[in-house]
């Protein structure tokens, strides 16, 4: 996730990490094999962002992970809970960034589609699709969602896990989250927030693009936040349901 370090966001086109985007999971636990078969690592020479398999040929991630990036410069590693080993690597043939992701400094409409060469190996314990939500559906405040990723384990420290991390956090109402982030960025209807009032559990750098699950559906994508796991600053996630029709129009899924 992009982590906000100041009101002025400095976005680096063509890179997978950004000081304002969400990186890794803080306060989580090691994921169990088979619990997140949709999870992929979007990488150049090493892990950079997360992504989720939504069909035999398509995955979804955050737009800020792939702005200015050529498909040939990235691969997806899927089918493993160890980002540095195991699984299978897939070449990308196409990246589709949402057309309304026009102002990266605002991080609105932070979603992108990834098409691979060939097809994912699906239907196994380690690799499978995740269901998508109904168009315009929304989460209620206090619904508990699950976030997964290989991002930082501590705020501001380059401490990364070998094993996929998972953490459960409650949804924060949009009005409350808007007020909490009033001096950071606008929280739009294309976003939702989740986190504990006391902090301590959150996505962080290099978790960007990864999945947020609720009732077995991909309801969110790790997007941004004010640093990581701070009190009264919940993580902010792309609301996938807003983009359900756009996903179908571009992928047939």
TrEMBL record:
Q: Does the keyword Hydrolase apply?
A: yes
Gene Ontology cellular component annotations, sorted alphabetically = extracellular region
Q: Give the signal peptide range.
A: 1-17
- Write out the GO biological process terms: proteolysis
Keyword terms of this UniProt record = Disulfide bond, Hydrolase, Protease, Serine protease, Signal, Zymogen
The similarity comment for this entry is:
Belongs to the peptidase S1 family.
State the protein's name.
Answer: Peptidase S1 domain-containing protein
Q: Which organism is it from?
A: Oppiella nova
């Amino acid at each position: 996730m992009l982590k906000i370090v100041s009101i002025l966001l400095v976005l680096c086109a063509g890179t997978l990490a950004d000081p304002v985007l969400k990186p890794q999971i803080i306060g989580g636990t090691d994921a169990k094999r088979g619990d997140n078969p949709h999870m992929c690592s979007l990488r150049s020479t090493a892990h950079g962002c997360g992504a989720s398999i939504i069909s035999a040929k398509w995955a979804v991630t955050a737009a800020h992970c792939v702005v200015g990036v050529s498909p040939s410069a990235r691969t997806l590693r899927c089918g493993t809970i160890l980002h540095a080993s195991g699984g299978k690597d897939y070449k990308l043939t196409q990246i589709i960034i949402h057309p309304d992701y026009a102002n990266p400094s605002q991080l609105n409409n932070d979603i992108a589609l990834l098409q691979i060469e060939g097809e994912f190996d699906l239907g196994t314990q380690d690799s499978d699709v995740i269901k998508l939500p109904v168009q315009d559906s929304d989460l209620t405040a206090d619904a508990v969602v699950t976030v997964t990723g290989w991002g930082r384990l501590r705020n501001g420290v380059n401490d990364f896990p070998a094993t996929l991390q998972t953490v459960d956090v409650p949804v924060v109402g949009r009005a409350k989250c808007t007020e909490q982030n009033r001096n950071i960025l606008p929280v739009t209807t294309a976003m939702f927030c989740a986190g504990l009032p006391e902090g301590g559990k959150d996505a962080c750098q290099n978790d960007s693009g990864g999945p947020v699950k609720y009732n077995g559906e991909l309801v969110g994508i790790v997007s941004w936040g004010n640093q990581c796991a701070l009190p009264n600053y919940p993580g902010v996630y792309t609301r996938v349901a807003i983009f359900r029709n756009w996903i179908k129009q571009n992928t047939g899924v």
